[in-house]
Design a protein that fits this description.
The chain has helices spanning 2-24, 45-57, 83-95, 98-102, and strands spanning 25-32, 35-41, 62-70, 73-79. It has 104 residues and is α+β, with helices and mostly antiparallel strands. It is elongated, with a radius of gyration of 17 Å. The mean pLDDT is 87.
Length: 104
């Protein structure tokens, strides 16, 4: 019985951690074969176009970008991008206030 209880508690903690991380997430963008698509969440069309341009200019074939709420601002974390392209994506997101990104 003790092992079962410990397993249930561990599973509940993992679910809580995942839910807390998702609560901070504004959107998840996926790049496959150079095409940027929204995997989860939403952003204003102008922001998506600007990020698609960043991906296109960086010749990115495969990547995942997460736009997260960080206090009163939004920030970008990514896998599959070089530092230059990631900084350009951060610059695009940094132009827009969090309220505009949330109102998408």
């Amino acid at each position: 019985m003790g092992l079962f209880t410990a397993s249930v508690i561990a599973l509940a903690l993992v679910a809580l951690i995942v839910a807390a991380g998702r609560a901070r997430e504004l959107c998840v963008l996926s790049v496959r074969a150079g095409q940027l698509t929204v995997a989860r969440g939403r952003l204003p069309p102008g922001v998506l176009e600007a990020l698609a341009d960043v991906v296109r200019r960086g010749n990115v074939e495969r990547a995942t970008l997460r736009v997260l709420r960080d206090g009163e601002r939004a920030r970008v974390s990514a896998t599959g991008l070089d530092e230059f392209t990631l900084q350009r994506a951060r610059n695009v997101i940094g132009i827009y206030p969090l309220a505009k990104l949330l109102a998408a």
